Amino acid sequence: MSKGMRKYFKKKIFWFIITFVAAVILNFLLPRLMPGDPVNAIVGKNVSPGASPEQVQEQIAFYQHQFGLDKSIFGQFFDFVVNAFKGTFGVSYSQYPRTVADIIGSGIWWTLALQIPAILVGWLLGNLLGAVAAYRRGIWDKVLMPVSLFMSAIPAFGAAVILLVIFAVNLGWAPVNGAYDPGMIPAFNWNFISSVISHYQLPFWSIVLISIGGQAVGMRSMSIYELNADYVKYSRFLGIKDGKIVRYVFRNAMLPQVTGLAMSIGSSVGGALVAETIFSYPGLGTAMYNAIVSSDYPVISACTLIITLMVLIASFMLDIIYAFIDPRVKAAQFD
Amino acid sequence: MKNTLKNVFHSPRFLVGFIIFMVILLTVLIYPYFVTRDPLLSLGKGFLAPGTYLSVYDANNAPTYRMELPEAAINRLESAIPTEDRQVMLDFLKVKGADVSGVSTANDSLDDLLALWKANYDEADVKASKYQGFSTQAQRNKLRRLNTSILASEQASAMSLSKGEGDAVAVSDTDYIKVNEVANAVSLPLGTDNFGRDTLTELVKATGVSLIIGLIAGTVATLLGLVVGLLAGYVGGIVDDILMFIANLFTVIPGFVLLILIYYSVGQAARGITTCALVIGFTSWVWTARSVRSQVISLRNRDHVNLSKLSGHSLFRIVLTDILPYIASYVVMAFILQVSSGILAEAQLSLLGLGPKTTDVPTLGLMMNWAKLFGAYTSSNAWWAYFPVIGVIALISFSLNLMNTGLDQVFNPALRD
Amino acid sequence: MGKIMLEVNQLTTKYVTRANEDVYAVDHVSLKIEEGKSLGIAGESGCGKSTLALSLIGYYFPPLHYMSGDIIIDGKNISGLDPDTVRKSVLGTDVAYIPQAAMNALNPTRKVYKFIEDVIHAHGLDMTNKDIYDMAHKRFEEVGLPEEALLKHSVELSGGMRQRVVIAISTILNPKVLIADEPSSALDVTSQKMVIKMMREMMDKGMVKSMIFITHELPLLYNVTDDIMVMYAGQIVEKGTAKQMVFDPVHPYSRGLMRSILVPEAGTRDVKLTAIPGTPPNLKHPPAGCRFADRCKYAVPACKVNAMPIMEFEDNREYRCGHSVQHLREVYEHEDRAE
Lengths: 335, 417, 339
Hints:
The complex is a heterotrimer. Chain B is mainly alpha-helical. In chain B, 64% of the residues lie in helices and 5% in strands. Chain B has 17 helices and 6 strands. The longest helix of chain B is centred in the middle third of the chain and has 37 residues, at 199-235. Chain C has a domain at 251-339. In chain C, strand 9 and strand 10 form a beta hairpin. In chain C, helix 6 runs parallel beside helix 7 (189-204). The chains are: A mainly alpha, B mainly alpha, C alpha/beta. Chains in contact: A-B, A-C. At the A-C interface, helix 9, helix 10 and helix 13 of A face helix 3 and helix 6 of C.
């Protein structure tokens, strides 16, 4: 490992840690700035109608102690960090006494299983279309590009709603909401799996659809830029076959798109949140939405923390991988 | 400058985008002069499908004209027996064992269908639930109702309606009224939403408000990004490190999450249009700052900048005269993108119920939110309440994106074909 | 007289612009190069010299199109061959090219030896990758390049190194004609000298049989090439040996060009730097008469009407002008005395 390389990694790791710490603090602090006292809300729900003011006070004190809200803000932060390291993230306010880890644990796998394949498929298809448009030009380009541009202009929820209305409500090809038939008990059998698959289609394609457009537009400009590069002409004059040159070009155009992948993981969180709420998909997005509606700080904090962490790790890893697979970055960063 | 503008307008992409955007903008500006009604005025209850609505009472009082349309009778029949009913008729005929080959639910085979029906329908048999598949009470009633309405529309008999005070006047099937002679007729090209508001008027108003939100958010984001980018890029050193650290934070915590957090902590009461726009602007400046910074870094060691430095010009002056003009085109493009993403961000927030808390003005996002809450996608299937909204959002960002790629092609020759 | 390596007869090629207009950037150009000789082509930017370089390769793709004429390399006429034959059996072996922007001529994400493998395989030569590596290694050694340059990506090499790697790759199949388009213009003086030295050595060692060197820096041509040709608006306006062209240019444009760029250097005359006013004509609609007439201070009305053919006036010297050589020389002598 060269000196430049070591310096590059050190710098990356340093920023990774600093950003992580700051993100943890922000994640703790911001939801607590929200107005509305969650304890009052819980007590209001749980206390019997005839309870005396003293009893109510007692209940409030009980819950405040349970949630650690009677401690100073630093004490609360300490608890937050300890709970985060323990992996429990404390107790949910709105679904007391369920732990946050439980709520998140039940949602995160749905979200990951939905998002990661959808983002990858969207990224691949988008890049393929962009590359073809750049290489073929002509009709491909003239039709494909405005269409892609228009597709990327359709908001995430718009695509989701249109798919929902066409395929679920009107054609009845796919279920309207949920991740599996509500009458079923999750089990590893064909009925359940087929139900999951049919519920999976619409949210999946709605995410794929919106990511294709943006990726295609980006890949097209990148490819056109590369097609005009001097090495293309030079390679031609050395007698290298067109097919080989096209492979050079698309490899080179594709590499910077890898960072686009990190970005799309980051930005997809918002889009997925919307897709999940529209399809009532029981993922992290829905959990977060419910938590926001009920001022459930611990759940919000944990959700945003996990999302942040996912983005942080994804972009860190992509940075590192990118530096290895793209000599241009290697040359620029390591020396 | 003049030349640049000319080039910009020669770019077909920019031109198409610009025209679409101007059409939207002009509609927003001019429409209120034609329809002066309050966009949030409730005209009725629940979703009404698009169309022109006539007051029955006033229609009754409108002068009548005699016309004999040759296709009047068949039109009446066609509209009296909808496709679902024709399907039921077909099903019945099949059960009964009639020869239904060549007969369908289409308009042109309605005559055959009716003839078959009249030949085969037998009230007594139906009552005795002789037919398989039509054995429940509801199914039997359905068949009987169907038969009654077929007979009624076939006869096209004159109905008696009360006109004026107690006089009964026969209404003939050749009587017509003029739509604009009916005292109360309202045209709802996009129907009404769940509150019974005229969707089109509401949509135009919402587009205007969303454009303002986009404009404010875009301005805030661009200005913030520009200032941060200029400072970080030109001053460099520790200022650069700190600013870029903040920018990194904003990148790593997805903007949308931050938006939700900040937005919620602002509190419901304070969430008006302006706050909404400001918060969106405040969370989306990062990429503008990054790109401005990298451009400034490539500029700051150019000869003309060095010359200015040697001449002892102030930082402010150097930035204003030697740096800004070189990144101006870029900043304009960034601004356009920011406006478009600001409009989108508002729509997404509102959809999640985190939009501006207002009862005076609609926004595109609020309209989506209402449509979602009141089941326009699913139970009501009221496409007019959400589809035009999605269309408008897509058109606005499409036009802005087009303008942007047009500008990009003008200013970055490498992308030209 | 040595063996003729390259003979070009009346070559005409055109560009088709996006507006579908034809631009005849190379207009009936003829030239000859013997084995072991080098030819310089000079002219201001936009005179068609880079297009000539591309046209000589015989491998055309849009927007450049072949119109007419012959390119004969070592007795083989390549102008009528189909593109794939040209690609496989002409490019790299008969004629090789060093591009203007040699700095960026290599694919940044492919290691140099991998790229050389691609070049060899593209010609269908029966060599294993190990053979290729050994051959490339030997060649790199011969031209004074380190082995590690083979193992790196082009972005990891310095500018001068990249330039020399490109030259080594271009000549790896021992081409009969090497066309270099301003190969040194982006380099500092030291790297420039190294590049020129390298190219001369390659000719001496027989790795390259003949060379065409295109540049706007005339002093460079004087030092490097045997003959010089001056181009203007897609046509050749004068031809001669390097010495004749620098010290005794005949065509008014050549004279202006020599005088405007010539810098005081050992062995050259101390002349004032005079630029030629005006710009070359638009080749979409070339003028009917002499193409230089609009900028020529010796032009008479007839010049704008009559197109001039290129004429031989001394052994191996040609020019294209309405005035006689004698008249021009007298005028120049008169001018020089007046200075």
